[in-house]
Amino acid sequence: DIVLTQSPDSLTVSLGEGATLSCKSSQSVLYTSTNKNYLAWYQQKSGQPPKLLIYWASTRESGVPDRFSGNGSATDFTLTISSLQAEDVAVYYCHQYHRLPLTFGGGTKVEIK
Amino acid sequence: QITLKESGPTLVRPTQTLTLSCAFSGFSLSTSGVGVGWIRQPPGRALEWLATIYWNDDKRYSPSLGSRLTIAKDTFKNQVVLTVTNVHPVDTGTYYCAHFTRSGHWDSWGQGTLVTVSS
Asked: Do B109 and A51 lie within an 8 Å CB cutoff?
């Protein structure tokens, strides 16, 4: 199985400041024939289902604010929130869809300082 | 607009079979490349993929639950059903169904249904 390790477990950031979340994969999720990384990021607010933010490691889902950006390739990925807003308080999960079984990271909780 | 809604029992006794339904709209499970899957989340914990069924009736299951899972679709009713046999308290959690895109990721999720396994 592909293991996704997210860090840190939690992050406290001041409003307007930036936040960088890490996701490291135990195996490459880069599909060489398409040159695409099969890695997505989800935001889950308390009591709500996950919401897709980023897919293909860096493609922002329609309607997602551009303060969210994804980067990385193969085994190392980041989600950056450029200027944290109050509504960004949530747990963020990375997810690989490169290989079965599909797996998720353990999540990073983002809070306001 | 894609919507999905899960339904099923809120309380199940250990060793019983759990049956969950996912009613969806906004897409057809006969469209090439798409699918519907189930993902669960124990209270306070991370997400765990369980199963996916594709437009061509291909099915994939999490090895960790293996033969305890069965997924099926009713294309005409726009419904997907997941059964989990021989449940235990560790199966307690919120069960989500989600739309699987041709690109391979989940883009729309239901609100989830909380299932408690307890005697």
From this structure: yes
Torsion sign across C-alpha atoms B47, B48, B53, B55: positive
> Phi-psi bin for A32: left (phi > 0), alpha (psi -120 to 50), beta?
alpha
Residue with tokens 């797996």: A103
Closest Cβ–Cβ partner in B64, B105, B112 for A97: B105
Residue B66 above 80 pLDDT?
no
Helix (H, G, I), strand (E, B) or coil at A46: coil
Interface of B with A in 13-52 (CB under 8 A): 37, 46-49, 52
Q: What is the Cα–Cα distance from B78 to B26, expressed in whole angstroms?
A: 10
Residue with tokens 């239901």: B110
pLDDT tens digits along B67-104? 999 999 998 899 999 999 999 999 999 999 999 998 88
Could you tell me how many helices (H) and strands (E) chain A has, helices first? 0, 13
Interface A:B, Cβ pairs < 8 A: 49
Name which of B4, B106, B111, B114 to mutate to probe chain A: the one with the most chain A Cβ atoms within 10 A of its Cβ.
B106
Give, in order, the Cα–Cα distances in Å from B35 to each of B31, B83, B106, B111.
Answer: 9, 17, 9, 18
